[in-house]
């Protein structure tokens, strides 16, 4: 069996790149899943996700945990990192940031299943956590808990 590990068409992997100015300008890229047909979970954790409050201009901080059961495609991790970094100067509410990440990944990858947990640090004394999943998780795939404790100083 041969596997095509071609990275043709990728514009960021192995290249000098600059940080996109906004999530809209960021390019998310995908690569073929060499294990398509096998059910497994891929997890990305971004413990230092930041965005800007659209009302105050102050920074907001979150830990994002993204789990997905890939179909034919995997997200290329450098492009995901740059996409997530692009929120650093982006003004949006917690719900919008979390759902923008989820929707872009779902549109790009067409995964069998995806969930995201946006665990946001308090602003004004209230943490706002945002959760989304595309549907019921596949019964034949082990999906661990996200492992982020309810807010009590997160850590």
Automatic annotation (TrEMBL):
Species for this entry: Spiribacter salinus M19-40
Catalytic activity: 7-aminomethyl-7-carbaguanine + 2 NADP(+) = 7-cyano-7-carbaguanine + 2 NADPH + 3 H(+)
Keyword Lyase on entry: no
Catalytic residues identified in the record: 53 (thioimide intermediate), 60 (proton donor)
Gene that this sequence comes from: queF
Keywords assigned: Cytoplasm, NADP, Oxidoreductase, Queuosine biosynthesis
Origin superkingdom: Bacteria
Stored InterPro entries: GTP-CH-I_C/QueF, NADPH_dep_7-cyano-7-deazaG_red, QueF, QueF_type1
GO molecular function, one term: preQ1 synthase activity
Binding locations of substrate: 75-77, 94-95
Known pathway: tRNA modification; tRNA-queuosine biosynthesis
GO CC terms of this entry: cytoplasm
Subcellular location: Cytoplasm
Main subcellular localisation: cytoplasm
Compositionally biased spans, kind Polar residues: 12-21
Family per similarity comment: Belongs to the GTP cyclohydrolase I family. QueF type 1 subfamily.
Its job: Catalyzes the NADPH-dependent reduction of 7-cyano-7-deazaguanine (preQ0) to 7-aminomethyl-7-deazaguanine (preQ1).
Name of the featured protein: NADPH-dependent 7-cyano-7-deazaguanine reductase
EC class: oxidoreductase
